[in-house]
Amino acid sequence: MAIKEKKKPKVYPKLSSYVFAALVIGSFSLLFFSTRSFIVDVKDAGLSFFSGMRGGIHELSSLVSRTVLSIRELAALRREYAELADRVARYEQLERTAVEIRQENIRLREQLGFSRSLNYRHIPAELIGRDPDNLFSALVINKGKYAGVENNMVVIAWQNGVQGLVGKVIQTGQFESLVMPVYDVGSFIAARFFVSRYDGIVEGQGGPGAPLRMRFIQKRARNEISRGDLIVSNGMGGVYPGGITIGRVNAVHYQEDEISMEVELESVVDFSRLEYVFVIGKEDQDG
User: In terms of Cα–Cα distance, which of 222, 228, 231 is closest to 203?
Assistant: First the structure.
């Protein structure tokens, strides 16, 4: 039996060459386009990344700059505020000082006018303290032996247009003296009613706020005494000159079975506001 030979396919050289060339061109084309797109994508991604970083860095640096600037401005504002507050405080202090100086000048003019009206030798002084350790409720004035102050000299003051009795000197130093005020329990002043002329003794009761007491007033004077009557020193006893205002009647007390009566007085001197006083020379106290 004869073996049949298989037929070999026909080879078309030209067609194979065309196919191969087409495949090569297609492959290069795909490679070219895909590579370019990748490069473009990489470039775009890199551009976006670095643009974002540049923008973030710019925003961060701007934020830091604004923060630093704000801190500097805040510090400057605080300094300016402190300077302005200090300036306002100085202006207020100057204003208060000016007001105080004006008031002080008014008071000093009043004291000077009163000093010129006095008919006897006197020593102006200023109240500078109180002596709670003394046996008396002593006031401290800034004049002593060097200025001519002596024990038992009388001290008066000028307040609200009225000359009032403050007390008497009980102890002197070279530059300071102690004054026993009229409200002290050891103070006794020969006095009389300015209008009715009845006499009595004014005694202190221990405190600047406590009323004074005038005792040993003749009982028949009760019909001639009323609240608000003026009490003055009568000059007896050789210590207090006559005619110095002590106080005004605040209350009247009497008992039917007693031969004398007494009244309460309110001192004309407001010791809570006492600043300036005058020490009267003893040799010129004529009563």
Answer: 231
